[in-house]
Specification:
By secondary structure, the protein is mostly helical. The protein has six helices and no strands.
């Protein structure tokens, strides 16, 4: 796996670690500023749901971190491709069902990383 692919995977990891933190620990504070269209009265009611979503984002980041430490290049690529595919699908669905900007925040970086893997960059 090339340096560009690893760097882009690193970007996706950082994005998902931030989303994890935001949904698990910053839901009542920072998330209110990030999700301005979300009704303010729903933050408290949705705190457990957001924490659960955050955990899933953490799993995506963990899988991508794992992919960077697998010594066998074939398995490293397979694991990275799987988790980036999960991020891409989640980003596409989130853009369709929640907010269009998710397309750019999640799906686009995952797509770029997948292309970098495919083209061995």
């Amino acid at each position: 796996m090339g340096i560009a692919a690893k760097a882009l995977i690193g970007v996706v990891i950082l994005i998902h670690l931030y989303i994890m933190w935001l949904e698990m620990f910053g839901w009542m504070t920072r998330a209110r500023k990030v999700f301005r269209k979300f009704p303010p009265e729903l933050f408290e009611k949705t705190k457990p749901m957001a924490a659960n979503q955050g955990l899933y984002n953490g799993f995506l980041a963990a899988g991508l971190i794992w992919s960077l430490f697998i010594p066998d290049i074939g398995w490293s690529i397979n694991v990275a491709t799987f988790f980036l595919g999960c991020v891409l699908v989640a980003g596409l669905f989130g853009a369709y069902s929640v907010q269009k900007t998710i397309l750019y925040v999640q799906a686009l970086p995952a797509t770029l990383a997948l292309l970098a893997i495919y083209f061995n960059l």
